[in-house]
Amino acid sequence: MTTFPLDDFKQAAEQLKPYIRRTPTMPLKLSDDLEVILKLENLQVSGSFKVRGALNTVLSLSEEDLSRGLVTASGGNHGMGVAYAGSLTNTPTTIYLPENTPTSKVKKLQKLTPDVIVSGAVWDDANALALKDRDDNGKTYIHPFADETVIQGQGTIALEMLEDVKDLEVLLVAIGGGGLISGVASAAKQINPNIKIIGIEAEGAPTLHNSLKAGELVTLDGIYTKASTLAPRRSAETNFNIISQNVDEIILVNDDMMGSAAKWLWENAGLAVELSAAAAIGALQSGRFNPKGTKTGVIICGAGLDGLPS
Description:
Largest sheet: 6 strands, mixed
Shape: globular
Structural class: alpha/beta
Order of helices and strands: HEEHHEHEHEHEHEHEHHEHHE
Number of strands: 10
Strand order of the largest sheet: 1-2-10-7-8-9
Strand content: 15-25%
């Protein structure tokens, strides 16, 4: 599977429309000769784009699936999306978080569901616990990036972005497990085959970058970034295949670049974003990626406090 039909994304958009926000775009001048257009998913109902995929999946479940309760593992944002979906459908929800999840996100999740378990060094460890809970207790597991309906939900961002900015030439997308960029790239390339999709990944968690370089899915030995939502040790074949065919380049940025960009966004645009949401701005400001006069968009994927100076 290297893509999904465009109609799948359109159907997801219709299903989600009553429950989520159509987030705005905003032009932002980064320097005298560089202006980008932001897609402000930090203003989404759950604080990030993740609710699109999570809710699209939960709304597609049968009554039997819902009756068993929901379980997932998350760096925070996907958990918020699943918890929001659980509250909408009156479904008990259990969220497993790794220990590197920002405290602010743990507290937000605890307001939505009492079943928040913080355990494991990184997402992969928390995910193993979520899968055990599924197997032991029969709960319905919602994958944060590899489920087809999750990817289709995330891709609805591209429908909105390219409707609002029809002449967009380049779109920068942060990469964690790869669900966001899989959906966005798949939908965007069908709308405009000439658009360039650039992935931005953390140097300390180059999961997809290294996989593409190796020509196969790889598992990282460790995670060395504070951007916890960009930090699985392994992606999935579905995402790897879509990204291989639809993403033009993956750029790596370090934590200092993301932190500097997050601070700049707060001080110059009034946007409080997590480190991962500042990754693309960090790539532009550091010169790791130069759009060379093209009309460039950036998905600001989530709100957060971890990117702000203490």
